[in-house]
Write a structure and sequence with these properties.
Elements lengths: L9 H4 L1 H12 L4 H29 L4 E2 L6 E2 L16 H8 L10 H19 L9 H6 L5 H4 L5 H4 L7 H22 L1 H22 L9 H18 L2 H24 L3 H17 L2 H4 L5 H24 L18 H11 L3 H8 L1 H4 L4 H26 L7 H14 L10 H8 L1
Antiparallel strand pairs: 1-2
Length: 434
């Protein structure tokens, strides 16, 4: 009977539309257009309500679903009866359906984040505190990736991953590790996650040395991109609904990382190479195959490499003694160019190694030929600039700026000792600078 039916009637729910249209028509509104807009709005509300009901039903579904093969399991099952994957508790399953992950108090991702925070704390204390970005010389002293020193100190490929240029840089990588790290731990194991972070980050730094800009390289982004791409590759290969969702989420993180890199002018070359290395591993190595018992020894070796490299990197950062910053020159010698002139005289006399050694001893002792060539090119450019300065000092410009006049007065006798050498062609100078 109608009197006992509490089911919602769509026609009855739409009665208010006609009442509103009638009132609006008496006020001179276009009733046809208004009725159409109200009907569309009402349908959108009903659609949203149905979607909410579906989400609630999916999240509160009584049975468990295997994220690997998609099989429906009894709510009391611990592992999937089809593929053997761990199912987790019903609460964990409900969080997963909401796109969340149950936090783990002590995990390898947490320990990795603490190690990176320790490296930043060491850098912050050595730099005297504050929120300003640390000086470049300090980053080099504590283990940053600096091309002139890499051939003699290859451990910088790893230590650079535990140094960051500021709170924004650090915070983004911490958020990424907290999001991506636990997923890799679930797929491949805790120790493998750490090793994958170290290996992909080191490979990213190594490859960046070949094509990236010449400068101090720091940050965990290369390893983070390795983890992210590994999860994406694994999810894509699985082909399940869970795998595709994981792949899409990781691709979004990769896009965020590249965008963040462009915004703060970070090293996107390291991001790219880290993603390539991690993606290759995730696509090639199935979690089910990697976690088999017969590979226990291999997993142990891989895990040991990751743990040893992390402990070693942090130990190096904490035990290195930063060199004190250069003291400012006395006021009467603040514009002295005598030392630079002496180096140019040695360079023009053919003593290239001695000229470089007097400027940067670490570069002169480096076995890398490319590094010395870069230093020689930079020194030759400086010497040409000194020749131009000498010409400017000898010019009869009565309106010369006071600062330039002071430099000329203090250094003209030294500049006159500089041999005259022809200028290098612009193309040759640019080619060697690359």
């Amino acid at each position: 009977m109608a009197g006992g039916d509490n089911t919602s009637n769509p026609k009855r729910d739409d009665d208010w539309i006609e009442r509103v249209v009638g009132i609006a028509g008496s006020l001179g509104f276009n009733t046809m257009r208004l009725r159409w807009k109200l009907i569309r709005w009402q349908e959108s509300r009903r659609k949203a309500a149905r979607q909410r009901e579906q989400v609630i039903a999916r999240v509160t579904y009584a049975h468990k679903l295997c994220r690997e093969c998609g099989a429906v399991q009894d709510r009391n099952e611990v592992t999937c009866t089809r593929c053997g994957t761990k199912l987790g508790s019903r609460g964990v399953q409900m969080l997963g359906r909401l796109g969340l992950a149950m936090p783990v108090a002590i995990s390898m991702s947490t320990l990795l984040a603490l190690a990176i925070l320790g490296g930043y704390a060491r850098l912050w204390v050595a730099g005297g505190g504050g929120i300003a970005s640390p000086a470049g010389w300090l980053l080099v002293d504590l283990g940053g990736r600096w091309p002139p020193l890499m051939s003699a100190e290859p451990w910088r490929l790893v230590t650079a991953m535990f140094l960051h240029a500021g709170l924004l840089h650090l915070g983004f990588n911490m958020l990424a590790i907290a999001t991506v790290g636990p997923r890799i731990e679930e797929l491949y194991g805790r120790a493998t996650m750490l090793a994958l972070f170290i290996v992909t980050g080191a490979l990213a730094n190594l490859a960046t040395l070949q094509v990236g800009p010449i400068g101090v390289g720091i940050g965990a982004s290369g390893g983070v991109m390795g983890l992210t791409a590994a999860a994406a590759g694994c999810g894509h290969r699985a082909g399940t609904s869970y795998g595709r969702a994981l792949r899409n989420a990781m691709l979004q993180w990769m896009a965020y990382t590249f965008f963040f890199g462009f915004v703060i002018h970070a090293d996107n070359w390291a991001h790219l190479f880290g993603a390539i290395a991690g993606g290759a591993f995730g696509f090639a190595v199935k979690p089910q195959a990697w976690t088999r018992r017969r590979l226990t020894a291999l997993r142990g070796v891989v895990g040991f490499i990751g743990i040893a490299a992390t402990i070693g990197a942090v130990a190096i950062i904490f035990t290195r003694t930063p060199s004190p910053p250069e003291e400012p020159a006395p006021p009467d010698q603040g514009t002295s160019l005598v030392g630079s002139v002496e180096r140019c005289i040695r360079l023009y006399a053919g003593d290239t190694k001695g000229a470089i050694a007097s400027a940067v001893p670490a570069i002169a002792s480096s076995p890398g030929a490319a590094t010395r060539e870069i230093a020689e090119s930079a020194l030759a450019t400086l010497c040409e600039q000194l020749q131009e300065l000498r010409d400017e000092c000898h010019s009869a410009d009565s309106e010369r700026a006071p600062g330039l006049r002071k430099i000329c007065d203090q250094n003209l006798s030294a500049l006159d000792r500089l041999p005259v050498r022809p200028r290098r062609p612009a193309s040759d100078a640019a080619g060697r600078a690359r």
